[in-house]
Amino acid sequence: MNDKSPYTDEQKKIIEEEGLYFEEPKDDKRRKVIILLIILVALLGVLTVYVTLSNLNNNDNPDFDLYGLNYDRDGDGICDLNCDTNNDGKADTNIDTNNDGKPDLNITFGKGNTPYFNLDRDGDGKPDFNLVDQMEDGVCKLNCTDKDGKVKLNVDFNGDGKADLNIDKDKDGKADTNLPYGDGITPIFNVEDENGNKKNPVNEWDGDSSKSNIDTDGDGLPDINITLDENKDPYLDLDTDGDGKSDVNKDFDKDGKPDADITLPGGKDPLFNVTEDGEEPVRNLAPKTVDGKDLNVDTDGDGFPDTNLDVEDKNYCQLNCDISGDLKADVNLDLDGDGLADTNIVDTKPGSEDITEIDTNKHYFNILTFKDLATDNKTLSPGFTASKEFVLVNSSLNDIVYTISFKDVNNNFEGNDLKYWLIDMSNNKVVTNGRVVAPKKDSKIVENITLKSKEQHRYQLYFIFEETNKNQDIDQGKTFSGKVQIENASIVN
Predict the structure, then answer these.
(1) Quick check: 408 and 485 in contact, CB under 8 A?
(2) pLDDT attached to residue 51
């Protein structure tokens, strides 16, 4: 019997022992199709790998060792690597030449854009000036970097071979002298002079029971009770309760200006940008605008509001108020920074009796109450004086003429020794006929005064119990009370 099996004796043996079967290809066409399928699968695999790598290269994975332009490592919105400062599509500063995630060329300091270290002066793409991590006896001497490649210790800005900032004198890896604040390049703390004396030192007693520039975490840099001027008291990140944590004037971004829980210079209680259970201010935000009026204005840019202060978050000015609109305080002036008005004191609450906005469309005008001169159970005697300030504002587009009068007068003086006079503080002149005897009934003080559009008149009304060097017992303990009323206001024709 002829054996027509297509298998060889060796193949038959494998079939019996292993259970494997061999099939003879029927034609070349099928073989070609199989080869093509194999090639296609291989190409798809290569394409998948390429797409994956491309995504990694596009910084979807920050741990990958390839970085694009303007790479922001820490997510603070500031470029850390391969920064294109002139938008020409090429890296200018903090260039990572070996893709290790650290700057190698034209390295900046802090958050600035000026390169100081590893400068390429000959244009060959390699650093040749003011190199980082300059070693001596196995120890870093100048421009020592951290794990991210940022220069932190023994900083030499000018390349003269001498450390200018963050100097580590005891070689413990921490800066000892010429410490900056935040990311600044100017020495602020532990600044040494030619004799080795430290100015504005860290952890220095300031003469009482507290310390200034206190370093709470042992890194050599102050954390609380910070003063950026050795001649000033601490005013940033103040610890008012002694728990070692900042309570007021918190400077989160280390720019030398308070960001939250802001108080007035010398104060302890937070007044502006007050935080509650967190770092985000939630009330009395500074600055703010209420009904078209700018409040808590910082006119000198030091981070502390100084004009139109709403210290109690009542949405109107209470301290250092600008009445004239020139961003200079006119009334309720706080001269000593204690949060209390010292001079030119008036009530600035909207609709109050002390500031009157003249409106010719109204049939009535605000009445300013002059308090009883016998307040606080004081007995009036010769020489007694009292005064009251009030402000008239014309916010209209028209000039206005008005009259100032006494209203609801109650005067039980029998003699003529109680006198008054009115000063126009805006023009520094007396508008009454010198000292005038206080009236016994309602009467005009001054009439037909013109107040121009968008201007204000500030008045000071004075009273005096004149001393005559004669017997004045008849008027001892007498009182005067009344109101000052703005009336007969009309538009100037």
Answers:
(1) no
(2) 42
Residue 448, phi then psi, degrees to nearest 5: 60, 50
Residue 289: Cβ within 10 Å count? 11
Q: What is the pLDDT at residue 49?
A: 45
Quote the CA–CA distance of 479 and 212 in Å, as a whole number. Answer: 54
State the pTM of this model: 0.56
Three-state DSSP at 11 gives: helix
Parallel, antiparallel or unpaired: strands 355-357 and 385-393: parallel
Q: What is the mean pLDDT, run by run of 10 residues, along the chain of 493 residues? A: 60 60 52 64 54 40 59 82 88 88 88 86 86 88 89 89 88 86 85 82 61 82 86 85 86 89 82 84 90 90 91 90 79 78 71 55 40 42 79 76 86 88 84 90 91 82 86 83 80 78
Q: Tell me the C-alpha to C-alpha distance, in Å, between residue 214 and each of 166, 222, 244, 487.
A: 17, 5, 9, 61
Contact 51, 45 (CB under 8 A): no
What own/partner pairs with CB < 8 Å and gap ≥ 24 does 174-177 have?
Answer: 174/219, 174/220, 175/220, 175/221, 176/220
CATH code, residues 355-491: 2.60.120
The DSSP element (H or E) to which 289 belongs, if any, is: strand 288-290
pLDDT for 309 equals: 93
The Cα 21–Cα 262 span in angstroms is 87
85 vs 249: CA distance, rounded Å? 33
Number of Cβ within a 10 Å radius of residue 38: 10
Tokens describing residue 395: 């916010």
Residue 177 CA to residue 371 CA, distance in Å, equals 61
Q: Give the pLDDT score at 117.
A: 93
Least Cα distance to 346 among 383, 319, 367 occurs for: 319
- Give counts: helices (H), strands (E), the chain: 2, 24
Q: Which residues of 454-479 are buried (b: 16+ CB within 10 A; e: fewer)?
A: ebbbbbebbbbbbeeeeeeeebeebe
The predicted structure's pLDDT at residue 192 = 84
224-254 CB burial, b ≥16 within 10 A, e <16: bbbbbeeeeebbbbbbbeeeeebbbbbbeeb
DSSP-based three-state secondary structure for 32: helix
Q: How far apart are CA 134 and CA 145, in angstroms?
A: 10
pLDDT for 27: 52
Residue-wise DSSP of 37-61: HHHHHHHHHHHHHHHHHHHIIIIIS
Q: Which residue has the tokens 């991210």?
A: 148
Sequence ranges of the domains in the chain: 249-344, 355-491
